[in-house]
Amino acid sequence: MHVPKWLVGQAISFIGLRFHGRENRLGSAPMSEQSLISYIIEPSDPSAHLFRVQMTLASPTPNGQVFSLPAWIPGSYLIREFAKNIVRIEASTDSGPVAIKKLDKDRFKTDPADAPLTLSYEIYAWDLSVRTAHLDQNHGFFNGTSLCLAAEGYESGPHRVELLPPSDSKCADWKVATTLPRTGGESLGFGTFEAKDYDELIDHPVEMGTFTHFVFEAAGVPHEVAITGRHSCDTERLARDLKLICESHISMFGELPEMERYLFMVMAVGSGYGGLEHRSSTALICDRDDLPQVGVEKVTNGYRQFLGLCSHEYFHLWNVKRIKPAAFTPYRLNEESYTELLWAFEGITSYYDDLGLIRCGLIDAKSYLELVGRTVSRVYAGEGRKKQSLAQSSFDAWTKFYRQDENAPNAIVSYYAKGALAALAIDLYIGRVTGGTKSLDDVMRLLWERHGKVDVGVAERGIESLINEVTGEDCTAFVGPFLYDTHDAPIEELLSEIGVGVTTRPAESDGDRGGTAGKWSEADLARAGDLGVKTKAVGHGVKLTQVLDGGAARAAGLSAGDVVVAMDGLRVSGGQLTSRARVMGVGTTVEVLAFRRDELMRFEVKLQAPKRDRVFLYLKEDVDASCLERRTRWLSGA
Ligand SMILES: [Zn+2]
């Protein structure tokens, strides 16, 4: 049965109370007050980036109460030790101070107290990301994982929050955007909120400031957008476009998960990109120029990327916020939670984020195939895909994908990018073995019915079981090589069956991300030379950020971190390294002078042929009717 979240919260606040069995501690206090955990959160010093929190626990554990902050936030698989940002903490009861000490990186313990216990603490919030907290004179943002300590043993009861406005007069016109269920105060105002349990409390981030706010409706549910930061967004157009995306995903799954409202929280900055999914909202960071501008009608590359990000996080409403790996049910937020399934939760979501854009008519087939081509190019450019499987990439997200160093392209594969190709391959495989009657959409709907809707975690091989159920065939031999081994997903062959051609070519410049046919002739490409490096312009030279396995630079002994100052006696800067190598030609031996730290070193590099790792997809003409029908169904979702 599904009832609105806030209604569940109300019911549980009374049930939870009776089970704690400390109902007489507070004399005549109403029962619901006794098990309640409350927080007063104040952006106390925006200039110093400090939030002040006062947390009260009505009936602490008699032998000393343990409090903790999560070490990671769902959706971002890295141990971040949020408690490191607590700069000062004190505990007290009405009778006076209570001793509190740190137990480990995340936990504190107070001395025994037999009266309501209050913690007062300050949190340093100066990380402009969707994962933590940020506060200055312009706005405040926080996730509960950064600000709200959990009281051990009381996580399943209600948690009340009072948000106070900053006292700084410069912040007098601040408003609040959050989907945390409100119990007091005006819409968009500071006030009181209540979550049914700690999990809910930390799944509704809060934005405060002078944001632009507008609303549209999808599936009869209000969808709000709050844009913080300087911008000149065409809000009418954005509302119209987001509505199309939301309705496309809702129609694919058959229904919107039960919720009162949904909120896109957008932080517009000069340069930034990222998003984090939540149960009824998402926090996003984007370039302000990627937002649609008044008077511009076309979907620019930047706007397409922003729409893809919104589409991605909205798809997560089903896939990962409700359809979850068994390893995340329940979340264990003080240690790594290992699963081989991130390829399904991030890869399938990455597949549908762009597919949603063409299915709802915001981009055309050419634009969509360019996006797919870029994803394939991203995967093909790394040699790491020959060493790490998708399952391993998922499992090791904590120490590898989220901690990438200069050797990443040689050592790992992205469960986002290759995961999206796995999803594409599985989608087209299902179409192939069912004569075009079924698709990955059917698997997603089954996942929703069997797992998301009823809150049952997906077993490690659970996706394959559902693929088998949809097709009536055993998919093990098909998916095994690209999920559990290091083979590429056979997308070229599968795309060809639905009338989509695939060609490859070398990168023509450093900024060439693939997805297009390219401008060079085959003859020019055939003689082009390549160093096999990724670079970044620095002071008086070009820094090698990555030296790729199998490339010319690697063979010559160059290393990531080296700063190249001259090639064949000529100074190099910016993107010149790649362009000069292209012109000098394959087989040419060039002298490269580079600084390693402060030592000048000389290398002889024999230029190689560049890898054909930029991929271009196109619609084939003259395809037969059944092929055309499958292709049309794929791109339309009908
Ligand atoms: Zn994601």
Topology:
Layout: H1 5-20, H2 31-34, E1 37-45, E2 50-57, E3 66-68, E4 86-93, E5 96-98, E6 100-102, E7 107-110, E8 117-124, E9 133-135, E10 139-142, H3 144-147, E11 150-151, E12 159-163, E13 175-177, E14 182-184, E15 191-195, H4 198-201, E16 206-209, E17 212-218, E18 221-228, H5 235-253, E19 262-269, E20 274-277, E21 281-287, H6 301-315, H7 342-359, H8 365-380, H9 390-395, H10 408-411, H11 417-433, H12 440-452, H13 462-471, H14 476-483, H15 491-497, E22 500-505, H16 522-527, E23 533-538, E24 541-547, H17 552-556, E25 563-567, E26 570-571, H18 576-584, E27 589-596, E28 599-606, E29 614-619, H19 625-636
Parallel strand pairs: 1-12, 18-19, 19-21
Antiparallel strand pairs: 1-2, 2-8, 3-7, 3-11, 4-5, 4-8, 6-7, 9-10, 10-16, 12-15, 13-16, 14-15, 17-18, 20-21, 22-29, 23-24, 24-25, 25-26, 25-27, 27-28
